[in-house]
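Co-fold these.
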Amino acid sequence: MKQGQRFAMLLLLDREMFRQGSWCGETHLQKGTFLLQELLNAGSEYEFILYKHGPFSFELRDDLSGMQADGLLDLVARHPGYGPSYLLTADAEQFLDRFPKTVERFTRPVEFVAEQLGSKGVADLERLATALFIRIRNGMTDAEDRAAELVRLKPHIPEVDALAATKDADQLIGAVHKLGFVSGE
Amino acid sequence: MSKYLHEIRDPIHVFIRLDSFERKVLDSRPFQRLRHITQLALTYLLYPGATHKRFEHSLGVMELASRVFDVVTSNATDDVRRLVPEITNPDEARYWRRVLRMAALCHDIGHLPFSHAAEDELLPAGWNHERLTRTLIESDLMLPIWKSMRPPLDPEHIVKLALGARKARDLPFTKWERILSEIIVGDAFGVDRIDYLLRDSHHTGVGYGRFDHYKLIDEIRILPSEQGSTEPALGINEGGIYSAEALTLARYFMFSQVYYHPIRLIYDRHLMDFLKAWLAEGTLLGAGTFPIDIEGHLSLTDNEANAALRIAASEKAKPGHESAKWILEHKHFRVLYERNPQDVKVYSDPGEAISKAAAIEFGEAAVRSSKPRLKNVGVDFPVRTRDDRVEPAISMSGVLNTLKPKSIDYVFVNPEIQDRATIWLEKNRQNILECAASEEEKS
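Predicted complex below.
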């Protein structure tokens, strides 16, 4: 995937997440991209590791900076007490016009991810995305084992929330299959 | 009981102090090698004073890391102590202070000759200077030193703090380890950055790089990354926001005036060409890349490369002769094209398109390009307000809110064809970009 196509995919995701009520901070975009790549085979090839608030890619952070540099995204402080949001600039829509195939390819997957994540706050995203990370990367099948692993990795998450997040992750993967998306799991 | 026995004079920090255990690291071969690795590669060809070495920079990073550690641990509030309880145990805190100092001291020991300039294409796939640093920290040369300390240091802890999570992805980091690595390599207040800005500014004579680092360090705190977050981050008290702005501006100016100055970038490119040819020669090193074994790495510094450069410049038959001449006779390539926002609106990677087209038109030997990694100048970080809220820095500071990252990309041509190439580009620029744009989605 070329840089321009990655940027177009991220702009679509950001725009759709915003429409679905997401705060569109870096954490929201990191977790949304993680889902797109790992469950929906986006082909973006970011390397995700467990870092701040769960799965995180430094290369994705670089791309977000690159998009700011190219005038496609603005980092905006929207409300006291909350982190800044990435919002599309006026030039971003023109940029997307140059990538009709990419827009067509990613519209449905992006809508799916935005529907799933758009209303979630940072704490919810951390739990869900980390639970997905454990299922995808660790190959553990038993839900309780995965919940225990989630607590081990994120000790501030209560056991009951960890188990709920593990089940949410399973449901999400089920929805990916049901809707006919090709899961990267 | 270790004591601070050794004092080293330093132009930036006045005195840097080490105890006898730490002195063993200073005296080790990997660290002494840094006396012969310039901090800024060939920048001295533009700024003659810039001949300082990684050796003194590493000492400076250790000094600043200690200061930041002392400030953030002695000023941690209850909410932060809950996030990183390691602070509350004095023995643990003492251990990690030592680990931090040693990680700071060793964070650059893997650098190749001429530091960053030579790295990208001159190591085998999968290698970079951070991996070499790690190899050295975990080597038999350094392990006895870590073991001899009281208490002994775990080399993996040193590696994590010296490299940070980005470069040590296979290692799990606790929140505490993340914060400590941020003290060294962090985007916002990493002391690696603070020292190199101050030191490079001092030696280049470019005053823009200076800022009130005393005030800045005094106000650095561990804070929740945002209000109510369980993720700690390095942030600052509201009273330090002006010095944080000054740091950000210093970085912005140093990148535009020094680090990404086009002439510096083209010298780096010529140096890269020369080193590739030298390494491929076969008689000295043979592999076409710098060695990654410990003895091979320790045997090569700027001195060996500079000697080869001088010989190659004077002997036509030597590999890399042309590049060596361009460097030593100051006949570097000239800027043909610089990336700009208007062209980016037509095609995402205009420098690449123009470089390729120019190489077809004038031959590959006459064209070079340089696209250094994007540096995000306007980094966001948490700020503790006077009424005890945590706010993002960009909502507190118009300066930080205004500064945007800038992508740098230059295409250079041989001075002999510069006029012709300029006319050619003027005539063909739009067409080149539009053709490239039409192919952009076809991969």
